[in-house]
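Contributing: when you submit paired examples, paste them exactly as shown. First protein:
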Amino acid sequence: MPRAAARTGAPRRRARGLGLSLVLVLGSVSAGSGCATSLAPLVDPAPAEGPLLLLFERRGCYGFCPAYWIRVAEDGGVLYYGEHFVAASGPRRGQLDPAALAELRGAVAAAGFSGLAERYTRPRYRDLPVIVTTYREGGREKSVVHHLGDVTAPAALLELEEAIDRIVGSEAWVGTDAERDRLSGA
């Protein structure tokens, strides 16, 4: 739902075909969260892909953390958008085969995603990225916001976040640690 609607109690509106009703924005979850503020709007993936299965956003930090999002459609279509400190900036496309889609669904189930809290945003360590994972299946949608400095987040959530990157193959676009070190000048 649009942020303004969430604050004002205005009725929820859905975009046709996708159900996403907000333009994706990379930035901090809240003031003082320790993440660098980047409010540049990203492209809305709605026209390019089928119905949403999963949306995975890694938001930046004050340092050289990669910032990108990955959208996986129900048919396995993948749309990646790299913003900064990634090997591939901008949009890229891919396709998951049925086995990878099943593995992704299994990873979400194994993490007990539907039973996780909606927010793990009380960081002990502030200058770490935020990951937002949205999963939709069977008419239900849930998002979990995870500040990586929040030590109360369950291990299953961290394992799921790593599994999503692995299954989708995001390293091909994000780059290896060594490739990102070269980007940052380290």
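Second protein:
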Amino acid sequence: MNANSVIRRAQRQRGVTLLVSLIMLIVLTLFTITAIRTGNIGFKIVGNQQAQKLMEAAAQQAVEQVISNLANFDPTAVIAPSATAAQRVCVNASAGDPPVAIPPATCTSGTQVDVSPVRCIATKRSQYDSLTQAMATYDNVWEIVATVTDTFSGAKATYHQGVKIRMLSNSCPGLST
């Protein structure tokens, strides 16, 4: 090999080296863009899961408030299952916020939860009656439906919960005992 052939070969390889380095740079850029997009998608998924858990907690708190008020289970005050009236509960509201009425009031702070009227869905004679008095008790199953509205996105989620309460006979409207 003489010196001229070595110089010519080196001159031809300079263009190839530049081309290979540009291709490697493009591949690394694509890897970086993919990694960033994957991370952003992960953040969106985690954010959606967090919003869902917050909505579930708000619905659970509203349902607990409805369950704790025994007037909601009074057979004379229970609204017919076909009625659409609901209670609006503001969960995690600021102290001193007035209770809201339905419609059209909305929560000034906190998460808005609309709770449908409780509905008796099943009744069964209890096998454990009173030992001291002759009375018939029944195990009534009530359904409570809470609809949560996310204040930021406007997304809505509906949660159903059942509660069994032992009551006297004829305490489950719409179902014969």
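If you have annotations for the second protein, write them as plain sentences, like these:
The mean pLDDT is 78.
The chain has one domain: 36-168.
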